[in-house]
């Protein structure tokens, strides 16, 4: 692989290879863009079949975080890391502490969090070696389970969509079809129930379904029935790529708004949804509640402040809808525009001497 060519393609700032023979650590950290602030992103642990596969994955994920943080209004850049290994068999305290030391060498340019294959316990080990980690244990200043915050963000984003389509943002009496009632889906059902919405749910896990039927009066359907149901909102909270060539003609909803990542199988499916008159809330913006919540740890975690920030997802979705109309583009493209416009505005700010390395050099001279 021509790595510099790959980095140039999407203007990656940095790719760091971390190797520690003693602990078996083989990790890669990708810093995509730090215009808005330090690059924050999770560490994925996965038994990648090849180094190329790991590099491609970490680069793709890091770039996604730049857009997510920028569109969510966070003062953070985009980064991600991967540890090559099997999370079921290869985890040790020494491995994560070794990784923590590498993160420390970056001096705060990259802040690590949990991702697929890593946990709060692993973050606690990393925390021993570096302060540049979030998602640690609640007893160490952590923000706890992100899923209630992700669900709250989805609810707020849904309100903006409902307002656009039906003229007011009330969810009372609206029918929402929730696909997947796991961590996020459960909390979303709770919030929708409190807001007076009618719930139709599905999950491959029967006891998860039974819980929301019992607690929130949801109606249960089979997994293959949920997409074609006549409803106001389809909320994908299980898998990615459920909006594709096969499903778009069958969708029975007016709005697609859920927590799942990569809801659109391909970017062109955003256009196809718009053509069918279905409003799509871009996944990486509407599901950013967990990220906004965990990022709050950087200021000393405050649940009330984090909740307020998550609630602003409603406004972010409104802005995206406005850009979509302004530019005549589907909402998934408008979300990217929102992110890129913010990055461009900040990077074009005047470089004042106080913030410039030269300014710092001068200040140091003055104190000598
Ligand atoms: P989860 O594993 O707790 O829940 C997913 C649920 O979907 C499970 O109950 C599972 O049984 C069900 N499911 C799997 N296949 C299904 C199918 N074919 N049909 C119906 N249900 C099916 O995961 P989660 O943490 O609730 O996350 C849900 C989605 O939201 C994921 O795509 C995740 O990447 C995304 N997400 C989650 C968070 C968060 O804070 N947890 C943040 C951002 C994005």
Automatic annotation (TrEMBL):
CDD domains registered for this protein in UniProt: NAD_bind_Leu_Phe_Val_DH
Claim: NAD is one of the keywords in the record: yes
Annotated ranges, domain Glutamate/phenylalanine/leucine/valine/L-tryptophan dehydrogenase C-terminal: 144-351
Keyword presence, Cytoplasm: no
UniProt superkingdom: Bacteria
Gene Ontology molecular functions: nucleotide binding; oxidoreductase activity, acting on the CH-NH2 group of donors, NAD or NADP as acceptor
UniProt xrefs under PROSITE patterns: GLFV_DEHYDROGENASE
Keywords recorded for this protein, A-Z: NAD, Nucleotide-binding, Oxidoreductase
BP term (GO), one: amino acid metabolic process
Residues that, per the record, bind NAD(+): 180-185
Active site as annotated: 80 (proton donor/acceptor)
Family: Belongs to the Glu/Leu/Phe/Val dehydrogenases family.
Protein's name in the database: Leucine dehydrogenase
Biological source species: Rubrobacter tropicus
